[in-house]
Amino acid sequence: MQRTLGRQERKSKNRNVYYSKRCPTCVAARRYEDQEPHSDRRSHQCPDHRVSPKERLNMLLGRDRTIFVKKIGLASFLSLEEPAKQRLQDQINILVNYWRAAAIKSQAFAAYYILDLLDAHRELPLIIFSQDFFYACIQLVHGDTITSSNSKLPRESMIRCYQEYTEHCRASLLTNVPAHKHALAYLAEQSATILVNSITENFEHRTIHFFCLKLQNAAQDLTKKNAETTACYIYDSMNDPTSPPEWPSSIDRSDLFNSAMDDLRQLFANVPKPINSRPTVPMLYERKLPTGGREC
Predict the structure, then answer these.
(1) Helix and strand tally (H, E) in the chain?
(2) For residue 13, is pLDDT > 70?
(3) What is the pLDDT of residue 159?
(4) pTM for the complete prediction?
(5) Rounded to an integer, what distance in angstroms lies between the CA atom of residue 213 and that of residue 215?
Protein backbone atom coordinates (compact mmCIF):
# COMPACT_ATOMS: atom_id res chain seq x y z
CA MET A 1 0.00 0.00 0.00
CA GLN A 2 2.80 2.40 0.88
CA ARG A 3 4.62 1.66 -2.37
CA THR A 4 1.40 2.47 -4.22
CA LEU A 5 1.09 5.79 -2.40
CA GLY A 6 4.70 6.61 -3.22
CA ARG A 7 4.13 5.76 -6.88
CA GLN A 8 1.05 7.98 -7.00
CA GLU A 9 2.96 10.83 -5.37
CA ARG A 10 5.77 10.54 -7.95
CA LYS A 11 3.27 10.55 -10.82
CA SER A 12 1.51 13.57 -9.33
CA LYS A 13 4.75 15.56 -9.18
CA ASN A 14 5.62 14.60 -12.78
CA ARG A 15 2.16 15.37 -14.10
CA ASN A 16 2.02 17.47 -17.24
CA VAL A 17 0.17 20.63 -16.23
CA TYR A 18 -0.53 21.39 -19.90
CA TYR A 19 -2.30 18.11 -20.51
CA SER A 20 -5.90 19.23 -20.92
CA LYS A 21 -7.77 16.02 -21.77
CA ARG A 22 -10.64 15.53 -19.33
CA CYS A 23 -12.47 12.40 -18.32
CA PRO A 24 -15.55 12.28 -20.57
CA THR A 25 -17.55 10.37 -17.95
CA CYS A 26 -17.01 13.02 -15.28
CA VAL A 27 -17.53 15.85 -17.74
CA ALA A 28 -20.85 14.35 -18.84
CA ALA A 29 -21.91 13.97 -15.20
CA ARG A 30 -20.74 17.56 -14.46
CA ARG A 31 -18.51 16.45 -11.62
CA TYR A 32 -15.05 16.94 -13.12
CA GLU A 33 -12.76 18.98 -10.87
CA ASP A 34 -9.51 20.59 -11.97
CA GLN A 35 -8.02 19.84 -8.54
CA GLU A 36 -8.15 16.13 -9.40
CA PRO A 37 -7.23 16.00 -13.11
CA HIS A 38 -7.64 12.72 -14.97
CA SER A 39 -8.30 11.71 -18.56
CA ASP A 40 -10.53 8.63 -18.23
CA ARG A 41 -12.06 6.09 -15.89
CA ARG A 42 -8.81 4.13 -15.57
CA SER A 43 -7.48 6.82 -13.24
CA HIS A 44 -7.95 6.34 -9.49
CA GLN A 45 -8.95 10.01 -9.37
CA CYS A 46 -12.18 9.17 -11.18
CA PRO A 47 -15.18 8.59 -8.86
CA ASP A 48 -16.42 6.06 -11.42
CA HIS A 49 -13.06 4.26 -11.53
CA ARG A 50 -12.97 1.25 -13.85
CA VAL A 51 -11.16 -1.66 -12.25
CA SER A 52 -8.24 -2.94 -14.30
CA PRO A 53 -7.65 -6.67 -14.87
CA LYS A 54 -4.71 -6.56 -12.44
CA GLU A 55 -6.81 -4.91 -9.75
CA ARG A 56 -9.60 -7.43 -10.30
CA LEU A 57 -7.15 -10.31 -9.82
CA ASN A 58 -5.93 -8.72 -6.58
CA MET A 59 -9.52 -8.42 -5.38
CA LEU A 60 -10.36 -12.03 -6.23
CA LEU A 61 -7.10 -13.80 -5.36
CA GLY A 62 -5.33 -11.35 -3.06
CA ARG A 63 -1.85 -9.90 -3.43
CA ASP A 64 -0.11 -12.79 -1.69
CA ARG A 65 -0.30 -15.29 -4.52
CA THR A 66 2.10 -17.24 -6.71
CA ILE A 67 2.08 -16.79 -10.47
CA PHE A 68 3.32 -19.53 -12.77
CA VAL A 69 4.37 -18.94 -16.37
CA LYS A 70 4.55 -21.70 -18.95
CA LYS A 71 6.69 -21.05 -21.99
CA ILE A 72 5.43 -22.09 -25.39
CA GLY A 73 6.91 -21.48 -28.81
CA LEU A 74 5.27 -19.00 -31.12
CA ALA A 75 4.88 -21.57 -33.88
CA SER A 76 3.04 -23.92 -31.51
CA PHE A 77 0.85 -21.16 -30.16
CA LEU A 78 -0.48 -19.85 -33.46
CA SER A 79 -3.42 -21.77 -34.90
CA LEU A 80 -3.26 -20.31 -38.39
CA GLU A 81 -2.84 -21.88 -41.77
CA GLU A 82 0.09 -21.14 -44.04
CA PRO A 83 1.04 -18.65 -45.44
CA ALA A 84 -0.83 -16.41 -42.94
CA LYS A 85 0.97 -18.06 -40.03
CA GLN A 86 4.42 -17.35 -41.48
CA ARG A 87 3.50 -13.74 -42.32
CA LEU A 88 2.37 -13.13 -38.74
CA GLN A 89 5.53 -14.72 -37.35
CA ASP A 90 7.67 -12.50 -39.56
CA GLN A 91 5.84 -9.36 -38.43
CA ILE A 92 6.19 -10.36 -34.77
CA ASN A 93 9.93 -10.95 -35.22
CA ILE A 94 10.31 -7.56 -36.88
CA LEU A 95 8.50 -5.90 -33.97
CA VAL A 96 10.59 -7.74 -31.37
CA ASN A 97 13.88 -6.81 -33.05
CA TYR A 98 12.79 -3.20 -33.44
CA TRP A 99 11.53 -3.02 -29.85
CA ARG A 100 14.77 -4.51 -28.52
CA ALA A 101 16.93 -2.07 -30.50
CA ALA A 102 14.85 0.88 -29.30
CA ALA A 103 15.11 -0.34 -25.69
CA ILE A 104 18.90 -0.75 -25.81
CA LYS A 105 19.60 2.57 -27.54
CA SER A 106 17.18 4.66 -25.46
CA GLN A 107 18.23 3.16 -22.12
CA ALA A 108 21.91 3.55 -23.00
CA PHE A 109 21.39 7.25 -23.66
CA ALA A 110 19.27 7.62 -20.50
CA ALA A 111 22.14 6.16 -18.47
CA TYR A 112 24.60 8.51 -20.21
CA TYR A 113 22.37 11.50 -19.46
CA ILE A 114 22.01 10.59 -15.78
CA LEU A 115 25.77 10.06 -15.41
CA ASP A 116 26.37 13.41 -17.12
CA LEU A 117 24.19 15.14 -14.50
CA LEU A 118 25.97 13.33 -11.67
CA ASP A 119 29.42 14.22 -13.05
CA ALA A 120 28.34 17.86 -13.12
CA HIS A 121 27.08 17.58 -9.50
CA ARG A 122 23.59 18.55 -10.61
CA GLU A 123 20.42 17.36 -8.94
CA LEU A 124 18.58 14.60 -10.78
CA PRO A 125 15.09 15.74 -11.79
CA LEU A 126 12.22 13.55 -10.68
CA ILE A 127 11.01 13.37 -14.29
CA ILE A 128 13.74 10.84 -15.16
CA PHE A 129 11.62 8.17 -13.45
CA SER A 130 8.67 8.82 -15.75
CA GLN A 131 7.34 7.54 -19.04
CA ASP A 132 7.67 11.04 -20.54
CA PHE A 133 11.43 11.06 -20.02
CA PHE A 134 12.04 7.69 -21.63
CA TYR A 135 9.71 8.42 -24.52
CA ALA A 136 11.77 11.57 -25.15
CA CYS A 137 14.91 9.40 -25.13
CA ILE A 138 13.27 7.07 -27.66
CA GLN A 139 12.43 10.03 -29.89
CA LEU A 140 16.02 11.30 -29.74
CA VAL A 141 17.54 7.96 -30.73
CA HIS A 142 15.19 8.00 -33.74
CA GLY A 143 16.38 11.46 -34.72
CA ASP A 144 12.95 12.92 -33.96
CA THR A 145 12.12 16.04 -31.99
CA ILE A 146 10.78 15.77 -28.45
CA THR A 147 7.03 16.25 -28.69
CA SER A 148 6.11 16.18 -25.00
CA SER A 149 4.57 19.39 -23.68
CA ASN A 150 5.51 18.55 -20.08
CA SER A 151 7.33 21.61 -18.73
CA LYS A 152 9.16 19.46 -16.17
CA LEU A 153 11.06 17.67 -18.95
CA PRO A 154 14.62 19.12 -19.37
CA ARG A 155 14.27 19.26 -23.14
CA GLU A 156 17.23 21.55 -23.93
CA SER A 157 19.73 19.72 -21.75
CA MET A 158 18.63 16.36 -23.16
CA ILE A 159 19.12 17.54 -26.75
CA ARG A 160 22.53 19.00 -25.92
CA CYS A 161 23.57 15.84 -24.08
CA TYR A 162 22.41 13.62 -26.95
CA GLN A 163 24.58 15.55 -29.40
CA GLU A 164 27.57 14.91 -27.14
CA TYR A 165 26.52 11.29 -26.73
CA THR A 166 26.46 10.65 -30.50
CA GLU A 167 29.93 12.17 -30.86
CA HIS A 168 31.55 10.34 -27.93
CA CYS A 169 29.85 6.98 -28.39
CA ARG A 170 29.39 7.09 -32.18
CA ALA A 171 25.75 6.16 -31.71
CA SER A 172 23.73 5.65 -34.88
CA LEU A 173 20.11 6.64 -35.27
CA LEU A 174 17.38 4.03 -35.19
CA THR A 175 15.24 3.71 -38.30
CA ASN A 176 11.57 4.35 -37.69
CA VAL A 177 9.07 1.58 -38.25
CA PRO A 178 5.80 3.57 -38.34
CA ALA A 179 3.58 0.51 -38.20
CA HIS A 180 4.98 -0.38 -34.78
CA LYS A 181 5.45 3.07 -33.17
CA HIS A 182 2.49 2.40 -30.88
CA ALA A 183 4.66 -0.13 -29.03
CA LEU A 184 7.16 2.59 -28.06
CA ALA A 185 4.81 4.16 -25.50
CA TYR A 186 4.67 0.84 -23.68
CA LEU A 187 8.45 0.53 -23.96
CA ALA A 188 8.88 3.96 -22.33
CA GLU A 189 6.63 2.91 -19.46
CA GLN A 190 8.57 -0.33 -18.96
CA SER A 191 11.91 1.50 -19.06
CA ALA A 192 10.75 3.87 -16.32
CA THR A 193 9.65 0.91 -14.20
CA ILE A 194 13.02 -0.80 -14.71
CA LEU A 195 14.88 2.31 -13.55
CA VAL A 196 12.72 2.69 -10.45
CA ASN A 197 13.08 -0.98 -9.53
CA SER A 198 16.85 -0.96 -10.10
CA ILE A 199 17.10 1.68 -7.37
CA THR A 200 14.45 0.64 -4.88
CA GLU A 201 15.19 -3.10 -4.97
CA ASN A 202 18.97 -2.64 -4.68
CA PHE A 203 19.00 0.37 -2.34
CA GLU A 204 19.20 -1.60 0.91
CA HIS A 205 22.00 -3.92 -0.22
CA ARG A 206 24.08 -1.14 -1.76
CA THR A 207 23.63 1.19 1.22
CA ILE A 208 24.66 -1.48 3.73
CA HIS A 209 27.67 -2.40 1.58
CA PHE A 210 28.64 1.30 1.47
CA PHE A 211 28.35 1.50 5.26
CA CYS A 212 30.58 -1.56 5.60
CA LEU A 213 33.35 0.00 3.52
CA LYS A 214 33.17 3.28 5.43
CA LEU A 215 33.29 1.51 8.79
CA GLN A 216 36.24 -0.68 7.79
CA ASN A 217 38.13 2.39 6.55
CA ALA A 218 37.49 4.14 9.88
CA ALA A 219 38.31 1.11 12.04
CA GLN A 220 41.04 -0.97 10.42
CA ASP A 221 40.77 -3.79 12.99
CA LEU A 222 37.05 -4.27 12.37
CA THR A 223 36.25 -7.66 10.86
CA LYS A 224 34.00 -7.96 7.83
CA LYS A 225 31.36 -9.82 9.85
CA ASN A 226 31.23 -7.13 12.54
CA ALA A 227 31.21 -4.41 9.88
CA GLU A 228 28.16 -5.99 8.25
CA THR A 229 26.40 -6.34 11.60
CA THR A 230 27.09 -2.71 12.48
CA ALA A 231 26.06 -1.54 9.02
CA CYS A 232 22.71 -3.32 9.41
CA TYR A 233 22.27 -1.66 12.79
CA ILE A 234 22.95 1.81 11.36
CA TYR A 235 20.63 1.21 8.42
CA ASP A 236 17.74 0.11 10.62
CA SER A 237 18.28 2.89 13.16
CA MET A 238 18.21 5.49 10.35
CA ASN A 239 15.16 3.83 8.81
CA ASP A 240 13.12 4.17 12.01
CA PRO A 241 14.81 6.54 14.53
CA THR A 242 11.81 6.37 16.90
CA SER A 243 12.47 2.71 17.78
CA PRO A 244 16.10 1.86 16.95
CA PRO A 245 17.28 -1.75 17.29
CA GLU A 246 19.43 -2.91 20.16
CA TRP A 247 23.18 -2.54 19.81
CA PRO A 248 24.86 -5.91 18.97
CA SER A 249 26.32 -7.25 22.20
CA SER A 250 29.27 -8.88 20.42
CA ILE A 251 30.78 -5.52 19.31
CA ASP A 252 32.52 -2.98 21.56
CA ARG A 253 31.16 0.51 20.99
CA SER A 254 34.23 2.76 21.06
CA ASP A 255 34.48 6.51 20.52
CA LEU A 256 35.97 5.88 17.08
CA PHE A 257 33.00 3.69 16.25
CA ASN A 258 30.52 6.33 17.41
CA SER A 259 32.30 9.00 15.38
CA ALA A 260 32.20 6.86 12.22
CA MET A 261 28.49 6.16 12.68
CA ASP A 262 27.74 9.84 13.25
CA ASP A 263 29.56 10.67 10.01
CA LEU A 264 27.42 8.16 8.12
CA ARG A 265 24.20 9.51 9.63
CA GLN A 266 25.22 13.05 8.73
CA LEU A 267 26.08 11.96 5.18
CA PHE A 268 22.56 10.54 4.73
CA ALA A 269 20.78 13.30 6.65
CA ASN A 270 19.22 14.79 3.52
CA VAL A 271 18.27 11.48 1.91
CA PRO A 272 14.45 11.17 1.67
CA LYS A 273 12.97 8.85 4.26
CA PRO A 274 11.91 5.47 2.82
CA ILE A 275 8.19 5.10 2.16
CA ASN A 276 8.24 1.88 4.16
CA SER A 277 9.41 3.11 7.57
CA ARG A 278 9.68 -0.31 9.21
CA PRO A 279 13.14 -1.99 9.21
CA THR A 280 13.64 -3.81 5.93
CA VAL A 281 16.16 -6.32 7.27
CA PRO A 282 14.48 -8.53 9.92
CA MET A 283 15.69 -7.63 13.42
CA LEU A 284 16.58 -11.13 14.59
CA TYR A 285 20.05 -10.63 16.01
CA GLU A 286 20.31 -13.49 18.46
CA ARG A 287 18.49 -15.99 16.24
CA LYS A 288 20.34 -15.07 13.02
CA LEU A 289 23.86 -14.94 14.42
CA PRO A 290 24.92 -16.62 17.66
CA THR A 291 27.48 -13.85 18.24
CA GLY A 292 24.74 -11.23 18.56
CA GLY A 293 25.09 -9.89 15.05
CA ARG A 294 22.88 -10.28 12.05
CA GLU A 295 23.25 -11.57 8.55
CA CYS A 296 22.95 -9.05 5.75
Answers:
(1) 11, 0
(2) no
(3) 93
(4) 0.66
(5) 5
